[in-house]
Amino acid sequence: MHTNIPTRADLERLLSSRDPASVSIYLPTSPEERGGRDRIEFKNLSAAALEQLTAASAEHGAVNELRDLLEDLDADDEFWARQAHSLAVFATPSGVRTFQVANRLSPIVEVSDRFHVKPLLRSATFPQAAFVLALSQNAARLVEVSPDEAPAEVRVPDMPRDAASSVGKSSIADLVLAKLTSCGVAAYVLDADNLRHGLNADLGFSPGERQENCRRVAEVARLFADAGLVCLVPIISPYAIDRRRARQRHEDDGLRFLEIFVDTPLTTCIERDPKGLYRRALDGELTEFTGVSAPYEAPEHPDVHLRTDGVDLETLADRVIAAIAPSANATHGKSQIWS
Which domain holds residue 153? Predict the structure, then answer.
């Protein structure tokens, strides 16, 4: 399949063109036809355009010039052998411009003092290529697909090696949320990045500020749980004392609290590193970075221990669901803090 997508300059020239004998023709085509029925349809539409010009008392010489140009295009075997899914033809007595586009357009013929460009504008914004992230148990690939090329793998540095290695706290929490809400259980995720941009925008990453971050998030989670929601909190909580305090605040109010340890080896975190933060921390650009330049106190007795290396996302989410299921429909909610 051959495509010829208009550039911005092409579109500007078409839009600014003015001629009392301006012909716009659109027709669906087939890359496999190599002419045939496409050329017959083009002849019919060309004839209709010339009839409209004659009926409008267009200058006889201009009509003849257009007839010659359109007949020459119809006779061009090489041109018709290289088509896409639609053809746009713009003609005046002084010349013809054509575009082969990937999406399928309806047949149109229009005669005016300017070109009918709207269908072509829509085609120009039609995606001509797409990227597909293909994840499986044993592989992860980014593939580029386009209308006229075979699918091609795109090499991306630090691409996760498989679906399991791309799993993190937020991925698990989002799937748990989807599973709970699909069953009619009210739930909410307190996302760490969103909180850092809003409620905790005034906090940095010093030990004291990390403790305050956890304290605030725990208080918000407690309010959600008290309102009867399952509150999922996929944040980094590096200090054991902060997790103990969060649990105590919930249990003092009669609210169930689950500490979930997402246990991912540091080597896997460095390998995954979607934001490039571990690399920057190892290079000394980031200080106070948990697990590299700042301490992390692993939970000794978490309520749920998720070892993510080599385990698929669905399995991890189901383990969390199994842990919270006994109280998922209770009058009061519960909070899960992830460490």
Answer: 129-159
